[in-house]
Design brief:
By secondary structure, this protein is of the alpha/beta class. The protein has a domain of 90 residues: Nucleotidyltransferase, domain 5, CATH 3.30.420.270. 35% of the residues lie in helices and 20% in strands. It is built from 3 helices and 7 strands; from the N terminus they run αββββαβαββ. α2 crosses α3. The longest helix has 20 residues. The mean pLDDT is 79.
Length: 138
Amino acid sequence: MAINTRNKRSLEFNSASMSDLVFLLLIFFMITSTLVSPNAVKLLLPQSNSKTMAKQNVTVYIQEPNLFYIGETPIEIDQLETKLGEELVKEAEDATVVLRADRLVAVQDIILVIDAINAINDNTGNKYKLILATTPKE
């Protein structure tokens, strides 16, 4: 006499919990990737006690001897205003430019970037800001 059981075992795999796990991991990596701001150009930044924080829309690097970068793209000094203007047009009207200048860079090179941003502000009527990046004092 054969006894039939009411509970049959299913050999199917339920993937509902696996998709939840994948979405949680996706959200985690999206949030942590926005917190990381890698330095594309290795510089020895000046030291300061100030703790001004702002959203970094465009980053300008100045490295000794007279090497200028917008993001990771090297540019010439005479192209600074045009290339910086092109990058800032992609951003908001009150975008922030973060200037990361090496400790040994001449002040005149920093002034060139400030003048370029002021000229872009005058030409476009926008209010782009400049922040000088520093490292904390030890």
